[in-house]
Amino acid sequence: MKRLVVLGGGESGIGTALLAKAKGFKVFVSDKGKIKETYKNVLIHNEIEWEDQQHTESKILNADVVMKSPGIPDKVALVKQIRELGISIVSEIEFASSFTKATIVGITGSNGKTTTASLTHHILKQELEVGLAGNIGDSFAKQVLENNYPNYVLEISSFQLDDSFHFRPKIAIITNITPDHLDRYDYKFDNYIASKFRIAQRQTKDDFLIYDADDEVITKWLQKHPVQSTLLPFSLTKTIENGAYLDENNIKITIDNNQIIMPTANLALEGNHNIKNAMAASTVAHLLKIRKQTIRESLENFQGVEHRLEHVLKINKVQYINDSKATNVNATYYALESMDAPTIWIVGGQDKGNDYRELFSFVNEKVKAIICLGVDNEKLMDNFAGMVDIIVETQFMSEAVKIAYKIAEAGDNVLLSPACASFDLFENYEDRGRQFKDAVRNL
């Protein structure tokens, strides 16, 4: 009986443990932190051995295979020990994909993953049985065990791809690649790019890679490192023969001389980056033979993703916008780009080696005040102090929102778009976004 050790008792860990047990593995779950009560109960109910607040090496280093949570970096001593012993480490995506014959749409990128995955799933589910998993919703492993859908849309991070070797999505999407998480890639951008491209490494000529042709990082990498799959680029500026492009106010998608046209006028989501997300999702739908009418209606009635440019409330003619999911500079770039009124910007958190220069022109043009919300705001102060009349700092969301309320005038926007990770003051970006919304509702 093969022994599988799961490091990390979160959503992906518990899902993997359940699937592994059902497939005849002897399973042990170990978490250095506390495992949530709900997850503990699942493990106990299913008679799966577990521990938390410690790692017992004797119970881990005898594994045949280890599934580690994507949040655990490779530089952790225990992970190094496991590798030195030649024990294979896999991601949940890698492990679960070997137990399904489903058609998989895998979506990665620095930004736009969640929106593109949610939108793709929203279109496909109108006509297909399809699961949504990966970095989003219930774990992929658990869905493979319980639902066994014939199709899946997976949102996949670079960390999940790092431990994937045989994973081969029928359709892969790379939304864009900008410097992010460089602290996990020895501060080398090329390592991070290579990690994203692992999504296509096992693809064959019968598979498809959909990507942003306006993204120089992606196009240059593809020139040097060609892939086997059929390329379907999308672009806002170029005419694309096979793939999607913008022609005036229409998205035109061509696959094997079969063209569909989608007007952008009634897209539910605003901003150029969302036209790109719509192109990627519609290309998948067109590949999977979803009817044109269904695609169009789905693009028009899609509700968007929580914590992603989410309009919370309008108070005294001031619009409060929650973009807590903007955990890197490029995501905040899209947010500021889409602001069409003077903006009070709440920014800050755990900096991942950010370069704020690409935001300067928007800050000069659109931002009237900056509220820094982090434990260490020195870098933000250094970058932006000369650009705006008001720059203040706080470590409390409620205070940040109160300050914004005082500064804001009718017609302004108050935008939470942190450009940083949330772990210095909050549990995660969801917690940060919910605290923002609560504080706005309590004004």
Automatic annotation (TrEMBL):
Q: Which organism is it from?
A: Geojedonia litorea
Q: Please verify whether the record's keywords include Transmembrane.
A: no
State its Enzyme Commission number(s).
6.3.2.9
Q: Which InterPro entries match?
A: Mur-like_cat_sf, Mur_ligase_C, Mur_ligase_C_dom_sf, Mur_ligase_cen, MurD
- Specify the pathway: Cell wall biogenesis; peptidoglycan biosynthesis
User: What function is annotated for this protein?
Assistant: Cell wall formation. Catalyzes the addition of glutamate to the nucleotide precursor UDP-N-acetylmuramoyl-L-alanine (UMA).
Question: Could you state a single Gene Ontology molecular function term?
Answer: UDP-N-acetylmuramoylalanine-D-glutamate ligase activity
Q: Which family does it belong to?
A: Belongs to the MurCDEF family.
The superkingdom of the source organism is Bacteria
Q: What is its main location?
A: cytoplasm
Keywords, sorted A to Z = ATP-binding, Cell cycle, Cell division, Cell shape, Cell wall biogenesis/degradation, Cytoplasm, Ligase, Nucleotide-binding, Peptidoglycan synthesis
This protein is called UDP-N-acetylmuramoylalanine--D-glutamate ligase
| Reaction equations catalysed | UDP-N-acetyl-alpha-D-muramoyl-L-alanine + D-glutamate + ATP = UDP-N-acetyl-alpha-D-muramoyl-L-alanyl-D-glutamate + ADP + phosphate + H(+)
Pfam families registered for this protein in UniProt: Mur_ligase_C, Mur_ligase_M, MurD_N
Q: Which SUPFAM superfamilies does the entry link to?
A: MurCD N-terminal domain (SSF51984), MurD-like peptide ligases, catalytic domain (SSF53623), MurD-like peptide ligases, peptide-binding domain (SSF53244)
Using the record's annotation, list all stretches that form the Mur ligase C-terminal domain.
307-420
Q: Could you tell me which Gene3D superfamilies the record lists for this protein?
A: Mur ligase, C-terminal domain (3.90.190.20), Mur-like, catalytic domain (3.40.1190.10), NAD(P)-binding Rossmann-like Domain (3.40.50.720)
Mur ligase central domain boundaries? 107-285
Location comes to: Cytoplasm
The positions annotated for binding ATP are: G109, S110, N111, G112, K113, T114, T115
Asked if the record carries the keyword Cell division, the reply is yes
